[in-house]
Amino acid sequence: MSADALLSLFLPDDAATTQLGKLLARYLQAGDVVLLNGSVGAGKTHLSRALIRQKLGRDEDIPSPTFTLVQTYETDECEIWHADLYRLSHPDEALELGLDAAFETAICLVEWPDRLGRFTPADALHIDLKPEGEGRIAQISGGRSGLVAQLKADYDGQ
């Protein structure tokens, strides 16, 4: 993996995680899938909420999809699907939710993406969040061509 293909960031607090979500929102478009990996409390939902609010252009209550499995949001550009697959027991259940179609037409934020199994999109953006002291480490890789390089250049320019 080249240096351009991986962006590793230390996010010292929730404010930094929010800023990363806002930055990601600038680049995501219909058909982009973001796979959010990390333990419980690693910041997956926090990052998703910041990204969704930025895309919506307003501060709105963004509930966790833990119990509903999927929450959807309409933006001027496209629909956003926020999925939490923790409670799924088989990859076929992701298809029952309609995720396969959403992967083509919406921005999809997927927590616990290991539950997708063979349905994991090959060109998905991977964000791995790991606790580090009071903050967290975010490792970003994959996605459509040039996306990580764009994020890196923009983040370094902040």
UniProtKB/TrEMBL annotation:
The family this protein is said to belong to: Belongs to the TsaE family.
Keywords noted in UniProt: ATP-binding, Cytoplasm, Magnesium, Metal-binding, Nucleotide-binding, Transferase, tRNA processing
Name of the protein this chain belongs to: tRNA threonylcarbamoyladenosine biosynthesis protein TsaE
Subcellular location: Cytoplasm
Protein's gene: tsaE
Keyword Metal-binding: yes
GO BP annotation list: tRNA threonylcarbamoyladenosine modification
Annotated GO MF terms: ATP binding; metal ion binding; transferase activity
Source species, domain of life: Bacteria
Pfam families in alphabetical order: TsaE (PF02367)
GO CC terms, sorted: cytoplasm
InterPro entries: P-loop_NTPase, T6A_TsaE
